[in-house]
């Protein structure tokens, strides 16, 4: 049975959290973009951690969702890796790149998906216009 894009986003967020990524955020772009349904954005401290997070995301999504990424961009010492699953795009940033590109501000009118994860961005730090967030259903 195919998984939804929301379920895939949750699996990716959990994988990032398992590898100690932080400031994990999921944005619902279903009403904002024709390109994808969700962004998952997270931050890592260094390149070895980035590699571990990206590998964990790919593995957990493959095992739990039976999906492989369409593409992975930015490896080999990069400060931003993009993992594209079509309906879900995961952005793994080093701190300096996350602050520079500020995707959550660029997509500030997107609804935030509540993530009950240790490394999730606290709700008080969300960049939102109004009260635009939704709870993530159980998988």
Helix/strand order, N-terminal first: HEEHEEEHHEE
Spatial extent as radius of gyration: 14 Å
The named CATH superfamily: Beta Polymerase, domain 2
Oligomer: single chain
- In the predicted model, the low-confidence regions spanning at least 5 consecutive residues are 128-139
Per CATH, the class reads: Alpha Beta
Number of domains: 1
Query: Percent of residues in beta strands?
Result: 25-35%
CATH topology: Beta Polymerase, domain 2
Number of strands: 7
Structural class by helix and strand composition: alpha/beta
CATH architectural category: 2-Layer Sandwich
Give the CA-based shape.
globular
Helix share bin = 25-40%
Strand order across the largest sheet = 3-4-5-2-1-6-7
Q: Helix count?
A: 4
The largest sheet, given as strand count, sense and whether it forms a barrel, is: 7 strands, mixed
- For the termini, the CA-CA separation is 13 Å
Distinctive features:
Beta Polymerase, domain 2, globular, alpha/beta, 139 residues, 4 helices, disordered C terminus, seven-stranded mixed beta sheet
Characterise the protein shown here.
The chain has 139 residues and is of the alpha/beta class. It has one domain (5-114): Beta Polymerase, domain 2. It has 4 helices and 7 strands, in the order H-E-E-H-E-E-E-H-H-E-E. Strands 3-4-5-2-1-6-7 form a 7-stranded mixed beta sheet.
């Amino acid at each position: 049975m195919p998984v939804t894009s929301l379920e895939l986003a949750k699996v990716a967020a959990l994988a990032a959290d398992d590898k100690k990524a932080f400031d994990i955020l999921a944005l619902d772009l279903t009403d904002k973009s024709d390109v994808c349904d969700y962004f998952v954005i997270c931050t890592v401290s260094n390149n070895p951690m980035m590699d571990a997070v990206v590998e964990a995301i790919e593995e957990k999504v493959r095992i739990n969702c039976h999906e492989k990424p369409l593409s992975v961009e930015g490896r080999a010492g990069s400060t931003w890796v993009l993992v594209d699953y079509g309906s879900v795009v995961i952005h793994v940033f080093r701190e300096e790149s996350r602050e520079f590109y500020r995707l959550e501000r660029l997509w500030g009118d997107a609804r935030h998906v509540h993530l009950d994860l240790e490394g999730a961005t606290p709700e008080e730090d969300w960049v939102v216009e109004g009260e635009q967030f939704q709870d993530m259903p159980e998988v």
